[in-house]
Amino acid sequence: MTTDRLLTVAIHTYEKALELKSLLEHEGIAVVLHNVNLSEPSISSGVRVRIKEADLPLALRIIENSEIFIMPDDNERTNAQPTILVPVDFSTYSLKACALAFDIAKRHNGRITILHAYVPPTRINMQLNASLDLGGSSNGDGEEIQDVVIDDELHAAARKRLDEFSATIKELIKAGQMPPVLFNTEIMAAVPEDAVLEFAKHRKPMIIVMGTRGAEKKERELIGSVTAEVLDSCRQPVFTIPEQSDLKSLDDIREVILISNLDQNDMLALDALTRLSPHTAMNIHILHIAGKRFRGIASERECEMMLEYCRTHYPVCSFTMQSLDTDDAIDYLNNINANKGISLIVVPNKKKNILARLFNPSLAHKLLFHADIPLMAVPV
User: Fold this and answer.
1) pTM more than 0.90
2) Which CATH architecture group holds 74-212?
3) Domain 239-379 classified CATH 3.30.210.10?
4) pLDDT value at position 100?
5) What are the helix (H) ranges across the chain?
């Protein structure tokens, strides 16, 4: 049984001991310094940093990962590490997205950027003025001053919520419920999907991990879905986590459906998946959907060639293949939620212009709104 007896967790110079004391106390651990020269503390050496025995496991996690709890300045951050982007709206599914993103970052020695965006009042007014055609009826400088005040308030509120979200992440790391990975937070005054796409364009994250609502709720929010817009427009892989999903680690991915066109895009999607988790033994079910390029379903020879290639180049995984015509595939995918064994759907995703997306949404877009299963869209 643990007691309140004091244990020494580190021996430092006085300055370093003070830094560690401040860090631990900021995270709720009482600290006592011993061997301090009271007459001239600044020249003390061999200062013992002591804590209660009951606090030892938590203190060790904090000390071993102190860089997470004392965030480095921007100019100290290295560009050598891959970045995983997690856009958040502070919902429970945002937290689920973080859990998987931190697991990915740990495996790839990456770091996390948690991004929150809010719509600035100037953007709202521009949209209102355009829709109402107010022309020269605005109040000019008065409206601009009001917008600045409102923007400051929105930014302050967003920063407060983002700091609280960051504190929750740190508590989960301290409790050992999330891997210790470096992360930073950013706020952008922009339409959320624009903010994500702007970040991706200039910073080129390794992958974007986004939490999503359930299929029924997403259908009600079909117009203006942030995740759908990012899926359709982004040129980085996007991994979506529905709120009902229990997926927290890449090790939990066992049964995968890979949507196939029987072309090189299949290989790009498969390669992206296996590079993400190279040592995970997945059962990958290749689903070929016959389209205009293929007259009828794939032949037995085509299926065998595809399977032979996959088994040769990705021996850690096992493969099966099924070929369906378009009508059967739609029924299959509409009923995919009933198959509780599927961990992930992987879709090669071609970029479309806005009119094409409106009248002929991509398969990734359709699956996002109809399947409560994690989805990985790989741009091809």
Assistant:
1) no
2) 3-Layer(aba) Sandwich (3.40)
3) no
4) 96
5) 14-26, 56-64, 66-69, 92-107, 121-132, 141-174, 192-203, 215-220, 226-233, 264-276, 300-313, 326-334, 354-359, 363-370
Please say whether the beta carbons of 235 and 198 come within 8 A: no
Q: Per residue in 132-170, pLDDT tens?
A: 454 455 555 555 555 556 678 888 899 999 999 999 999
Q: Residues in the chain, how many?
A: 380
6-64 is classed CATH 3.30.160: no
Note the pLDDT of residue 3.
Answer: 61
Mean pLDDT, to the nearest integer, of 221-230? 68
Question: Between these two residues, 122 and 320, which has the higher pLDDT value?
Answer: 320
Backbone torsion region of residue 14, taken as left when φ is above 0, otherwise alpha when ψ lies between -120 and 50, otherwise beta? alpha
pLDDT digits (tens, 9 = 90+) for 83-122: 999 999 988 889 999 999 999 999 999 999 999 998 877 6
Fold equal for 74-212 and 239-379: yes
DSSP string, 234-264: -SS-EEEEETT----SGGG--EEEEEE-SSH
Q: Where are the domains of the chain?
A: 6-64, 74-212, 239-379
Angle at 361 between CA 336 and CA 128, to 5 degrees: 120
The lowest-confidence range among 16-20, 178-182, 300-304, 368-372 is 368-372
- DSSP code per residue over 147-197: HHHHHHHHHHHHHHHHHHHHHHHHHHHHTTSS----EEEEEEES-HHHHHH
Which residues make Cβ contacts (< 8 Å) with residue 237, sequence separation at least 6? 206, 207, 208, 272, 276, 376, 377, 378, 379
- Angle (CA) 133-139-141 rounded to 5° is 125
CA atoms within 13 A on the CB side of 285: 17
First and final C-alpha spacing in the chain: 58
Residue carrying the six token digits 């891997």? 179
**Phi and psi at residue 58, to the nearest 5°:** -65, -45
Among 267, 268, 308, 266, residue whose Cα is nearest residue 288: 266
The sheet that has 47-52: what strands, in order across it?
6-12, 47-52, 32-34
